Every structure is written in C-alpha cells, then in structure tokens.
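Small ribosomal subunit protein uS19
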Amino acid sequence: MSRSLKKGPFVDVKLMKKVIGKKPASAGVIRTWARRSQISPEMLGFTFGVHNGKQHVDVLVSEEMVGHRLGEFSPTKKFVRHGGKMQKEMEQKKQEAEIASAKAASARSESTSGGKEPVASSVK
C-alpha cells in the first residue's frame, strides 16, 4: 500500500540535513542506515553509502531513481548459485571451454610472434 499523498514522501530528517546546503561534488559519500527514505530531487548527484546489514554500498543518485527508496539499490542478500549435479557439469564444461580458448589464443600469439608466417595463411 502506498503512502498517502497528503503526507508526502518519507525522507529521513537527519539525511536531509546532510544533503541540504551542500554540493554533490564536495559532499563525498554520505553514509546512511535510512534504507526506507525515498529519493527526492534534492538528492540528485549525491553518492550515498547505504547500509545493507553488513557494509555500506555506494549508490550514485540519478534522475531515474527519484521516488524510489534508497534500500532498493543496496541488496541485502547475496545470490551464490543453485547447486546440484547438473550445475556442476555446466560449470565444468564452461571451464573446459575457457581453457581451450585460452590455449588457442596463446598458440595464435606464439605463431605470429615467432617471425615465421604460418603455413595455412601463406597458402591463400
């Protein structure tokens, strides 16, 4: 349910005191725990360090963010991955493909830096 228009958007008072009267370039990172505060137009250009429960995540406020809450841009949960046999097989195939492409790239660089032209390219 949204907040009443009569009340207006919620912005933490302490946070607004830190923003009002300062320029974005000179303010640096403003650390805050007020994840529920809505982003107002006065906050444009500022960088906020929004706490996610463990650390402060830097959030640079842009025009598209106005009206959203600060907490939306600082995720609290970190997705690791889905487990299982199928996932491990996929990761192994991906790793093997990366190794093969790295070997192919190193072979190409050795053949061009050796001074001799490769046989296949001179036949053209």
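thats it. The mean pLDDT is 86. The first helix runs from residue 13 to 19. bye
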